[in-house]
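Blinded run. Sample ID left blank on purpose so nobody reads anything into the name before looking at the predicted structure. Input follows.
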Amino acid sequence: MRLARVEGNVVATRKHPSLEGWRLVVCQPINLEGEDDGTPIIAIDPHGAGMHQRVIVSSDGLAARRAVGDNRSPVRMIISGIIDEMQEDAA
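Blinded prediction complete.
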């Protein structure tokens, strides 16, 4: 799982049939301070995350394929949650 920020939408006139009806978003991995941390990734978005919202992206391809209902789908990344707020525990 990665912490990321939604940076845009992907528009595809042709895509794998299993992705029909799914929103594809560009997610920029970030660190705990909100700074960019890696290259952007494309994920399906079952939650309707808004632009610049912080999200949790899972690379569990099996879960993503189950979400789209096709075991042969090329999907690999899925947004598993939208972050409302973050707290740091004092140890």
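Unblinding after everyone has recorded impressions. The mean pLDDT is 94.
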